[in-house]
Amino acid sequence: MTHPEATHHVDGLVGGQFDSPLTARGEREAGLIAAALRDVVPPDHRVAVASSDLRRTRTTAAVVGAALGVEPTLDPRLREKSYGEAGGRPQSWLDARFVPPPAVGDRLRHREGVAGAETRLDVAVRAYAAMTDLLGQDVDELVVVTHGFTAGLLVAAWIGMPVEAAGHVAFPVPSGSITTLREDGYFHNRAVVAVGDVAHLRGPGTRPGDD
Fold it and tell me: What is the CATH number of the domain that holds 110?
């Protein structure tokens, strides 16, 4: 799942690894996410919650963990892509300097023109490693609280897409969305059941946001 609305969204700032907290609306949406997960996780299942260690995901994970009765673990490999020196600056600052990736060629190692920014490959390597470790846990249900760009690479890792083939991969995962992945216990086939679901956010006074 992706964290809900954070302050950098409403302030027009670059997110990435800029450590922005949730807004008041984001905190309400974290409760809606937790309730939705509590409704679908059987009470007798063993559950683990893992989260990026940034504030907006850490806060969300704490709410989810409380609803599911587990203590979240924090993993910096689940952080959002770093935009280097652009993090926390106005989005217009990044837009003026950003070098978009090519349509073809080596998109994984493309440099975007901002000092300190991660490449897609940088994020993929840590996301794939995190997913491998997380799937080694002896649990029935695993909840991962992360960010939009990173979430897409975690799904790619889940389905076994080679890192070198992940140059174009992207999934529509807005803020506060839940993506459901399932592995059957007999054939061990892995399914992408739902991507970027935000139906749980459509209560009174809420609306889905952008990550």
Answer: 3.40.50.1240
Identity of residue 210: D
124 sits in which H/E element: helix 120-134
Predicted structure pTM score:
0.94
Tens digit of pLDDT for each residue in 44-58? 999 999 999 999 999
What length is written for the chain? 211
Q: Which of 82, 64, 73 is nearest to 147 (CA)?
A: 82
**Given the structure tokens 């399914």, which residue do they identify?**
191
Helix (H, G, I), strand (E, B) or coil at 173: coil
Domain that holds residue 82: 7-201
Cα–Cα distance for residue pair 211/130, rounded to 1 Å: 21
What are the structure tokens assigned to 54, written together?
């940034």
Task: Please tell me the total count of domains within the chain.
Answer: 1
Q: Is residue 208 part of a domain?
A: no
Would you say residue 207 lies in a domain? no
The answer as to whether 104 is a domain residue is: yes
